[in-house]
Amino acid sequence: MQNFVRVFLAFASIQFAYAASAEDLAADARNKINLAGKQRTLIQQVAKASCFARLDDEHAKAHHNEAAESIARFDRVLTGLRNGDEGLELLPSEQPEVLAALGEVEAQWAPFKDAALRSLEAGSGADAAFSRLVSTDMKLLAQMDETVGVVQTMNSASGGIDPNLAKTINTAGRQRTLVQQSAKAFCLKAVGVDPVSSARQQAEAVQSFDAAMKALVAPREDLVAPSSAIAKNLGRVDAIWQSLSTSYDAYDPDAPTASEDAAVIAAQNNRVLREMNRIVYMYALTQ
Question: Which phi and psi (to 5°) does residue 120 adopt?
């Protein structure tokens, strides 16, 4: 009888370890989709903050700090997605498809990062570096977006999570990027960088955000319905977003309050980002 008990307990412990391992893989999969998705946001946040440092001289140091912090965060997460990071709760990636996609991002990130850092320095080279930055950010964003798709597909399978949940995390995560992209394009237009193209990019980002917000609130069949807590937070995001949209439309670069108005837009923009980030983490914790 004692032998049977020992065997039973040993078998039960193995089963528990397997269940815990499967749970860890699922949590890692959700986390990877979230953090890979946020890399898109950081690309746009670097470009946005670098631009606002030129638009809003009074708060230039704060914008410089935001860009520098975003660069450091991107570096850490990119390494963590490949090699794992205990602090970020990331396991190492092993799928060849994911590793190859991360390699493509790494190749484009290096010159983008160099341009971003140089654009924040004082001196004659800063303007040229800023031009390189804003001429390459969308190409890097497209590569990162493609990589997020690979991470979503591969980790949905390996982590055993609902593909609809994976897509919802990605969709909600992309809202963070669109918020930053809309502000970046607004700023580029305001400082005179290709105003027509920048205005078009801003309008497209706003339209994409609005469409995705509707899909998250009243989801299609391929997205999961929000919990009551998530729905409440989505309502809060929408209210702040509508205020930000109004500020975009009301901005006048020739007004005496232009600098103050730009600072308000920057603050509203990051408030939407923080609230949307909270929602993405809520989705990522969904079992």
Answer: -90, -10
Query: CB–CB of 159/29 below 8 Å?
Result: yes
Question: Residue 15 in contact with residue 265, Cβ under 8 Å?
Answer: no
d(CA 37, CA 169): 9
**Alpha helix stretches (DSSP H) within 84-162:** 96-119, 125-159
> What is d(CA 217, CA 213) in angstroms, rounded to the nearest whole number?
6
- Does the pTM exceed 0.85? yes
In 3-state terms, what secondary structure has residue 85? Answer: strand
Burial of 199 (0-12, 13-18, 19+ CB in 10 A): middle
Please state, as a whole number, how many other Cβ atoms lie within 10 Å of the Cβ of residue 8: 10
pLDDT tens digits for the chain (287 residues)? 555 434 433 443 334 334 437 888 889 999 999 999 999 999 999 999 999 999 988 899 999 999 999 999 999 999 999 999 999 999 999 999 999 999 999 999 999 999 999 999 877 789 999 999 999 999 999 999 999 999 999 988 777 789 999 999 999 999 999 999 999 999 999 999 999 999 999 999 999 999 999 999 998 889 999 999 999 999 999 999 999 999 999 999 889 899 899 999 999 999 999 999 999 999 999 87
CA distance 193 to 280: 32
CA torsion sign for 75, 80, 83, 85 is positive
